[in-house]
Write a structure and sequence with these properties.
- By secondary structure, this protein is an alpha+beta fold.
- It has 2 domains: 2-159, 2-Layer Sandwich (Heat Shock Protein 90), CATH 3.30.565; 164-305, SH3 Domains (SH3 type barrels, Roll).
- Helices cover 27% and strands 36% of the residues.
- It has 9 helices and 16 strands.
- It has helices at residues 14-35, 39-44, 77-86, 92-96, 100-104, 128-137, 216-220, 284-291, 294-305, and strands spanning 2-6, 52-60, 63-70, 141-147, 151-159, 164-172, 175-180, 184-189, 195-198, 201-206, 209-215, 230-236, 239-245, 247-255, 267-272, 278-282.
- It has a 6-stranded mixed sheet with strand order 8-12-13-11-10-9. The protein has a 5-stranded mixed sheet with strand order 1-2-3-5-4.
- A hairpin with a 5-residue loop joins strand 15 and strand 16 (278-282).
- Helix 1 (14-35) runs antiparallel to helix 6 (128-137).
- The termini are far apart.
- The relative contact order is 0.13.
- The model is unreliable at 122-126 and 293-306 (pLDDT under 50).
Length: 306
Amino acid sequence: MELVLSGEETELDKTMIEDLNDPLVHLVRNAVDHGVESPEERIAAGKKPQSHVQLTAEQVGDHIQIEIIDDGKGMNADALRRKAVEKGLIDQETANSLDEKQCLQLIFLPGFSTKDQISSVSGRGVGMDVVRTNIQKLNGRIDINSIPNEGTRISISLPLTLAILPVLVVRACNQPFAVPLAMVREIITIDPQAIQEVSGKPTIVVRDEILPLKTLAGLLGWEPTQKPYFGVLMQSAEKSFILAIDSFVGRDDVVIKPLQNIRPKGVAGATLSGDGSVVLVLDMEDLLSASESANSFTRTSELLSS
C-alpha cells in the first residue's frame, strides 16, 4: 500500500489540528484494514497489486476540506444493513427503510464493525463513532461515499476558526456581514426588470447563464429594510448563485474568532472591523442549505416584487 499526502501546507487553527490527530489516525487505519484488499484479491479484480490511500487537505471557501480516499473494495450497502441488524444496533424494519446513503452512515453507530475478528490495526468496534463525535465538537461535518469494488471517500469539512480569511464585507438590514472572497466571482447591479421567475424562483441571466437569486436578508430569515441594489455572483461547491445585498463595504483580510458556547446557523464566527464593531462571518454552506425551504424563496420573491 502507498499513502499519498497532498495539501500539507493548508493552514488551520492549531488547537483544531491537535484535535484532528486521533480522528485522522482512525480513518487511515480503517482505510487500510477495511478497504484495502490483498495483492492477490486486487489482481483477481483487475486492479494493480499495490493499493493507494490518499490523505488530502485544501481550503474551500470558508472551510477546510480533508479527504481520505482509498481504491479498495468499497462498501456494500446491503452488507452494512445486515451487519447492523446482526449486532442489534437497528431493527429489521428500520434497516429495510434505509437507502444506500443512509446505510453508509451506519458505520458511525457506536459498536459497529464489519470485522468479525480483531486485528492489530482496527476492528474493535470503536473508532468511527468517536471520529464523528470529535469532528462535530469542532463544528465540522463528515460525509462518506463508497462504490463497491472501486473504493471509499470520506470527506471532513471544518470551519476556519482563528484563521486569516480574505472576505468581502457586505451590508444587509443595516448590518455588516463578511462572506468568503474565494466564493466571490463578481459584483453586479440588480435591475428589477431583469429578474425572471423559473419554476417559481427568481433568477437573473448573466452572460447566458441562468442563476438563482437569493437575498441575504431572506437567507438570514430577517425582515428586509429595503430593496437590494447589488448582487454578488458567488460560487459554492458546484453551485453558482447571486446573493442580493443592500450595499457593500469592500475587501478585507480578517481573523475569524469562534462564538463561545453558541453556534448560530449560518455563522462561521466573528471578526472586528476597522472601527471596532463586530462583523459576523457567514457560513454560506449552512445558509444555502436553509435556503432550500419554501419560506426562503417566498421571502425572496416578495421582496424583489415589492
